[in-house]
Give the backbone structure.
Amino acid sequence: MSPELARHLTEISRETGRQIGVLLTRKGEVEHVIVGDAHKLLLPDVGRARAGQVRLRGLRLVHTHLRGETLTKDDLTDLALLRLDLVCEIQALDNGLPGAAQVAHLLPENPEGELWRITDYPSVHELDFDFGAEIRALEEQLAGAARARVVGDGEKAILVGLSVGRGRATAESSLAELAELANTAGVQVLESIVQLRREHDPKYLIGKGKLEEIVLKSMQLGADLIVFDKDLSPSQARHIAKETSLKVLDRTQLILDIFAQRAQSAEGKLQVELAQTRYLMPRLTAGTDAGLSRLMGGGVGGRGPGETKLEMDRRRARDRITFLEKKIEALSSSRAVRRKERNRRGIPVVSIVGYTNAGKSTLLNALTRSEVLAEDKLFATLDPTSRRLRFPRDREVIITDTVGFIRDLPKDLVAAFRATLEELEDADLLLHVVDVADPERDEHIAAVDRILESLGLAQTPKLLVFNKADKLAPEAKDGGAKVNDAILTSAITRRGFDDLLEKADALLWSEGATSRASAASGGLPARIG
Ligand SMILES: Nc1nc2c(ncn2[C@@H]2O[C@H](COP(=O)(O)OP(=O)(O)OP(=O)(O)O)[C@@H](O)[C@H]2O)c(=O)[nH]1
Ligand SMILES: [Mg+2]
């Protein structure tokens, strides 16, 4: 940027009373000339930077200011969102000569958490700094930081929590669970941010300022995804995606994604697809304008043929939903036949329910010495699995493992898994398994109870099982098992199994227990197919 060009800009600026800007390439060639008004300048659409892009755009924005302003928030947002090499503002003095200047460029991630550096120059004659070398170094640092963070090829996300009227602690523990969900989904979490607000923002859920901060952060960290810990309405999701040019997910979508990754059986896959399609249908929109610059305002050209295509997409989605519902219905009625068969033979059914990762599958394995998949991830189990379990006195039950519950289990998911969850209706006894060592234990118990109630299972006999006893610190004693009327077990050390079987036995075969159970108590039941 020569002093001559600077003077040119300030002279025209003064004459016209408007801000004048130029976009310069690294060679110093003028690529765009922009004429603004007295207060601001609208950049042409140079295209939003791709999410996760580490290279800079190779363009610097130099423009005049007429009223002694320093670099504005818009300048800095453009710098970050458009990934400009730098922005520079030059004062147009009253006599048309260039005055002081201010320059800002992005910074790679740093301990201070700063996003950019702003430098003041008393006069354009002192703009003798070697920007070429500086910018190249910056670009290398940015790329290096991004490389260092890549482990595996998972997407990289910033998690956003929101607490409305409640404390930070609630939002943070919920966010910790979201991080676990993200981890299970194979997403790498770069940062978690909580905002405390008195109410939701109807348009962006969180505050607009906070959203901008998150976008800038995502640029700096190389994130390509924002995950919200609250469910977004279709219009919020749309507005946020438009504002940020990032992929936007909410908690429900993350859970749906995990289910989609993990579904094994044909039925499980259909159920997940049904839930996803139901969730996405209201979110299908015309003209997803990721390419439009924030400054273009969007909307233009978003209608017309797009609308027709949208209608088509919607119709296709509706057809698909009907198709999936029919298929699931068919599968579930064949399962109902199997269930009837089982009932006829009079073997009682014990179903294991509980919060995800409580140790349900591990417990089933340990009790029946089998090998159902169990792992330290959320939603390891999606498909119901049944095993025989032998009780003392040659009694036998069918014990089934089910999908884990989670607080605010997505509504579409409950609906889709209704067929699977219907199995629970036939249970003579529910074993509600709890991770006794989890600090959120009581919330988990309440969440599971709520879901059971919503499934109409509040009346089924229930046994509370405080599992993972081996993880309790000595001073935690029995982890509150006694006062909660729970049985303390460890699926690892097999502690408490005798106690568990005894209690279950008593509940199943006591007086007034199911007729099925008493029918089964004589003789050996037939083999289950
Ligand atoms: N220390 C300890 N760990 C346990 C115990 N029971 C289960 N775990 C561990 O907890 C994790 C989750 O176990 P799962 O059996 O997969 O849990 P789940 O309830 O079936 O989980 P979902 O199917 O995902 O809902 C695994 O890493 C288990 O090894 C226990 O008694 N003690
Ligand atoms: Mg499981």
Residues 354, 356-362, 374-376, 378-381, 404, 467-468, 470-471, 490-492 surround guanosine-5'-triphosphate (ligand 1) (CB under 6 Å). The radius of gyration is 31 Å. The domain at 156-259 is CATH 3.40.50.11060 (Rossmann fold). Residues 286-307, 517-529 have pLDDT under 50 and may be disordered.
